[in-house]
Amino acid sequence: MKDKFSSARPLTDAEEADIQAMIASDPDNPEMTEEELKEFRPFREVFPDLAEAIDRKLGRPKAKTTKKAISLRLDQEVIERFKAGGEGWQSRMNEVLRKAVGL
Q1: Which has fewest Cβ within 10 Å: 50, 83, 87, 88?
Q2: What confidence tens digit (pLDDT) does each residue in 2-51 have?
Q3: Which residues contact residue 11 at a Cβ distance below 8 angstroms, ignoring those fewer than 6 apart?
Q4: To which H or E segment does residue 58 belong?
Q5: What is the pLDDT of residue 1?
Q6: Nearest 5°: phi and psi at 82?
Q7: Could you tell me which residues come within 8 angstroms of residue 67 by beta carbon, excluding any fewer than 6 positions away?
Q8: CA separation for the pair 55, 51 (Å, rounded)
Q9: Which residues contact 33 (CB under 8 A, 6 or more apart)?
Q10: Percent of the chain with pLDDT over 70
Q11: How many angstroms separate the Cα of 82 from the Cα of each of 65, 68, 94?
């Protein structure tokens, strides 16, 4: 069933009134006032040390040699054998393939 309040077209006055009534009826989540919205500041401004710490932790460090993601179909038994060795199974598989092609 399509949402009654689809954004594919402008809202009618009746739909807007319904939405405003739903907002007003929720005492746990009142609509913010313009004054409250003006008090907002960027996260980085309020918590600069935390923002810097988060930035440093995002993503893994760049490797000297990058790898390329591909889709590859392998026998289930081959995958299970590598996974049985625990974490790093993809790197171990890569190493076996490197040796197989003489790298």
Answers
A1: 87
A2: 556 556 789 999 999 999 898 888 888 888 899 999 999 999 999 999 98
A3: 5, 19
A4: none
A5: 44
A6: -70, -40
A7: 94
A8: 6
A9: none
A10: 93
A11: 22, 19, 11
d(CA 92, CA 83): 10
Q: DSSP character for 77? A: H
The C-alpha atoms of residue 11 and residue 3 are separated, in whole angstroms, by 12
Residue 55 is encoded by which pair of tokens? 């930035």
Tokens representing residue 65 in the block: 């040699």
Domain ranges of the chain: 13-100
Q: Which of 33, 50, 30 is nearest to 42 (CA)?
A: 50
Q: Residue 80 has which token pair?
A: 């299970």
The CA angle 7-24-32, to the nearest 5 degrees, is 80
Q: What's the pLDDT tens digit per position in 47-94?
A: 999 988 887 777 777 788 888 889 999 999 999 999 999 999 999 999
